[in-house]
């Protein structure tokens, strides 16, 4: 991979550090934590579109779907709160576990939390693959959710701390890349199993197959060291400096190491991170820790990820055709993520947010018009031509691409890089919790929204995209090229946010000599 693709941006201090095979492989192993989230995002929608799965666990939904005639209202045939609970229950568990994981990442380190995510996810996969009733399905989903909460809490922080600051954006986005790879694998597996295997075996292999990404993050974490920041946080100064030398592959890391130690010493003065994070000086970052994950879900992207097969069946695709169309969107999602990896440290975060938002807005309007013209308010499309179906899929793919190189990866990158060490774990927990809350809400109410809002569903998401683009344009400072422990300077210089800082926040505390020279 050419180094030029990760061209560094300037700003703040410039710590020495190279793009090395060691740091690349370290970030790759860690980023596989995204596989478990992506696999689950992709697998649930495909499974809930399989008739045999609906017969076994949701017979009322199956009877309702199979009894709908082409002349009936297609918008409401999947409207079932029990069915959506199968998908959404996981995100309540992830919400709860992210709070516990924030304590674990600070007390025990990032790496053990990543390992725990793999164990929990693999356990959930086993329960789901062997499920005999809805209770087992929900229990399995809860275990999966606990694993996802741990991974989403620990992996983005780990990547931001391990990567050289010049390449932090690109390396952090590997988490989102592996999420998209997980989605693609799930879509491919659903399609292959539904078409060529069928029966109970198809959905059992789809759900039970989640054990593979769980074992990957578990085993991958075994080969990793914890981040230098985490080692310093727990008092292991010599080990941290040795790790930093190995990761940066330079002769002298004193300046970066000393700044990490200073940040850790300041962090130790904060005894209750969950109380301190609500102080005035953290309020600017806190706004984004809440709003970015909220807006990420309000783009409507997870409607496509969760329910693409259901959505495509609603607009007239057959079962296999709907799964194949989902596979296409999964491929687009993964490939488009590479755009952000290669441009985030060149163009910056703000430009990608705004350009991706514009692309999504245009596509949402076009999709709304296309569905309105064919289905109207009655939900009766008549005969659907191949040209119409292809056009809808094409614009959904363009919409997916817009998300994949903007709000998808940036939704994890920005919140993980903007907080100081003393509240970073608590802040990431808030980020994950908000993400999971809105993921749960969207997953739970989507089929009801489709039933009641009909083609206006995408208009709601389009309005949200406009609002969040204005929010980014007016309030988000550019963070590219800024070392993670120097990020406060960005907020202090912003015309809107600088009023939240006073002179005491600018004072640099004296470093303990014995630690600095370690």
UniProtKB/TrEMBL annotation:
UniProtKB keywords: Membrane, Sugar transport, Symport, Transmembrane, Transmembrane helix, Transport
Annotated compartments: Membrane
Membrane spanning stretches: 23-43, 82-101, 113-131, 171-193, 286-310, 322-345, 352-375, 387-408, 429-449, 455-476
Chief location: membrane
Assigned GO CC terms: membrane
Membrane topology: Multi-pass membrane protein
InterPro entries: MFS_dom, MFS_STP/MST-like_plant, MFS_sugar_transport-like, MFS_trans_sf, STP/PLT_plant, Sugar/inositol_transpt, Sugar_transporter_CS
Domain of life: Eukaryota
Protein's UniProt name: Major facilitator superfamily (MFS) profile domain-containing protein
